[in-house]
Amino acid sequence: MHQTIAVIDFGSQYTQLIARRIRECNVYSKIYHHSTRASVLKKDNVRGIVLSGGPSSVFSRRAPLPDKKIFEMGVPVLGICYGLQVMTSLLGGKVEETDRREYGHSTLEISDKSLLLGGISRSIRVWNSHGDKVIRLPAGFAGTAKTSNSRYATIEHRRRKMFGLQFHPEVSHTEQGILILQNFLTKICGCRGDWSMADFLEQSIEKIRREVGDKRVILGLSGGVDSSVAAALIHRAIGTRLQCVFVDNGLLRLHERDAVVNLFKRNFKMNLRVVRASSKFLRNLRGVTNPERKRKIIGRTFIEVFDDVVKAIGPVHFLAQGTLYPDVIESVSIDGNPASLIKSHHNVGGLPKRMKLNLLEPLRALFKDEVRVLGRELGLPKEVLMRQPFPGPGLGVRVIGEITAGNLKVLREADAILNEEMVSSGYYYKVWQSFAVFLPVRSVGVMGDKRTYENVIVVRIVESLDAMTADWVRLPYEILQTVSTRIINEVKGVNRVCLDISSKPPGTIEWE
Ligand code: XMP
Q1: Has 81 been annotated as catalytic?
Q2: Vertex 60 angle, CA 56 and 61, to 5°
Q3: Average pLDDT for consecutive 10-residue bins of the chain (512 residues)?
Q4: Which of 34, 102, 130, 170 is catalytic?
Q5: What's phi and psi for 202, nearest 5 deg?
Q6: Count of CB atoms within 10 A of residue 92's CB?
Q7: Which CATH code fits 197-385?
Q8: Equal fold, 4-188 vs 398-499
Q9: Quick check: CB of 296 below 6 Å from ligand 1?
Q10: C-alpha distances in angstroms, 5 versus 91, 325, 505?
C-alpha cells in the first residue's frame, strides 16, 4: 500500500498542480472534496494533509470549510493560501479582510529556523494570489518568514506539525517551491518517495475495471498522444471490451490511417473499427471556403459518423476520452467558481450529452508530460508520444479555400516531404509544429523549357511552449532549400514554396 498524501480541495485552479508536484516527488496523492470527514482520511491512512488554495474568502457565508477534526488527527497539515487562512481562523487566530489583493511576485525573507524551509535560500521570490491575510496567529504557532505585505507569510506549529504558506509553492514562479513541498513530504510526513508512474498505471487499471464492470467502452482514436494513451490504458484494463473507432475523414496526412491501424490493430491487437468517411466529409464541404463554416461542418459530420458507429456496434455504456487536466481547467467551473472558467475547449463535451453515454476519462488528473511517461509505460512508441500536435479538423484548415480531393492530394504530398526532412534533420522533435499549407493561388514559373502556372505551398514551422504564443523557427537555409527543391520537383501541381515568418500573435499557428 502506498503512502498517501491527502490534498483537500477548496476550489483552487492549482489543486491538481499541487497533486502533480507531489507526484513529481514520487509520492502518491489523492484529492478530496473539502467536506471530507476526518474519519475517511483516517481510514485511508493518510500520512499528511495539504489544504489547497481557493477563490473564497473565509469571511464569505458560503466559505468552504474542512472537517475541524482533521487538525486533531495527529497527521501533519500544510495549508496553502486559502488553506492557511482557513486553518488559522478555525484554530483561533485572526484573518483580516483586505481590499488590496496581493497578486504576483514578492520577496520572502526567512526569519526563523524551520523544518519546512530547511535548505531554502534566506530570500526567495514567491508567487502570491490572495486578498485576506493572517494578522494574529493561533496559540502555539510562530511566523517563520515574511513578505513586505504579509507579516505571516509562512507559519508553523512545530509540535503539532502544522504549517501554512501564504504564497503558492506549487507554481513554477515560486523559487524553490518544489523543495518546500519536498521538505513537507519527506522530512515532515516521512514519505519514502517510492511511488512512480508504473504505480499510477496499476491503480488506473483497477479503477477502470471497477468503474466499467462488464460493460463496453467506445473510444474515438485519432492517433494523437492523448487518445492513444487513453486507448492503450483502457485496453490494458478491459481488453476487447474496448471498441476503438478511427474516423478517416479524408483530411488526414499521408499514410496516417495505415500507421494507426498497424500500431493499434496489428501490434496492440485492439478492437479497432476504421470508418472510411472521406467522401461524406468532402461532399459536405463542397463549395465551402469560410474557415469557421468548414470547422463547423467537419465537427458536425464527425458527430454524425460517430453516432452511426455507436448505433451499429450494439450496446456500449461508456465513451472514453483522453481529456487531460489542462483541458479540464479550461472547460469547467470548479464548484461554480467562474474565475476558473477560462475558455471552452474544443476537445471536451459535445459528444457524450447527445449520446447518453457515461464518460470515462482516465487521464483527467494528468498533465501532458505525465501522459507521455504513462504512454511509455504502456509500450507506445516515441513516434506517437512525441508527435507534434495536429488539429482536429486536420488538413481541412490547411487547404485554404475550397477543400477538394485534388488540393488535398497536393498538400498531403508536400507535407510528407517537409515531414521527412524535419525528421531526418533532427528538427521534428525540436520544434512545436512543422507543416505545409496549400494556397489556392497560382503563380507563373518555368520548368524545363516550359512555362508553368501552378499552386503555392507555404511552409509553417513554429516553436512554442503552449501554443498561446509562437515564433517561427530559424531553420538552416540548407534544410529549407532541400524542402523547397523536393516539393517543387516531386509534387505535381506546385511550382512555388514560401516560408511563413509570422509570429503568434498577431498571426495564429494554423492558417484557418
Ligand atoms: P492556432 O492556429 O489557434 O492554434 O494558433 C493553436 C494550436 O491549436 C491547434 N489547433 C487545434 N487543435 N482542434 C485541435 O485539436 C482544433 O480545431 C484546432 N485548431 C487549432 C493548432 O494546431 C496549434 O497547435
Answers
A1: yes
A2: 130
A3: 91 92 95 95 96 93 95 98 97 88 90 94 94 94 94 96 97 96 98 95 97 97 97 98 98 98 96 98 98 95 94 94 78 39 42 76 92 98 96 97 98 98 98 98 93 97 94 98 98 98 96 96
A4: 170
A5: -60, -45
A6: 12
A7: 3.40.50.620
A8: no
A9: no
A10: 22, 19, 41
d(CA 69, CA 54): 20
Place of cell 481488453: 239
Look up the pTM and report it.
0.87
224 CB within 6 A, ligand 1: no
Q: What is the 3-state secondary structure (H, E, C) of 394-441?
A: HHHHCECCCCCHHHHHHHHHHHHHHHHHHHHCCCCCCCCEEEEEEEEE
Q: Kindly report the CATH number that applies to the domain delimited by 4-188.
A: 3.40.50.880
Active site residue 170: yes
Q: How far apart are CA 134 and CA 97, in angstroms?
A: 9
Confidence (pLDDT) at 345: 39
Closest by CA position to 8, among listed 40, 30, 24: 30
What integer pLDDT is reported at residue 346 of this predicted model?
Answer: 44
Kindly report the CA angle at 118 between 115 and 120, in degrees rounded to 5? 145
Please report, as a single letter, which amino acid is at residue 409: K
Per the CB < 8 A criterion, the answer to whether 6 and 19 are in contact is no
The Cα–Cα gap between 295 and 279 comes to: 17
Cell of residue 52, nine digits = 489547497
| Closest listed residue to residue 439, CA positions, set 460, 418, 466, 419 | 460
What angle (nearest 5°) sits at the alpha carbon of residue 356, between those of residues 353 and 362? 75
Per the listing, cell 504557532 goes with 141
Q: Does 177 sit in the ligand 1 pocket, CB within 6 Å?
A: no
Tell me the CA–centroid distance for residue 493 and ligand 1, in Å. Answer: 27
Every domain of the chain and the residues it spans: 4-188, 197-385, 398-499
Q: Is the CB of 392 under 6 A from ligand 1?
A: yes
- Ordered alpha helix ranges (H), 239-324: 256-260, 278-285, 291-312
How far CA 299 is from CA of 148, 373, 493, in Å, comes to 52, 30, 29
Ligand 1 atom closest to residue 393's alpha carbon, by position in its atom list = 17
Q: Which CATH number fits domain 398-499: 3.10.129.10, 1.10.357.20, 3.30.300.10, 3.20.20.370?
A: 3.30.300.10
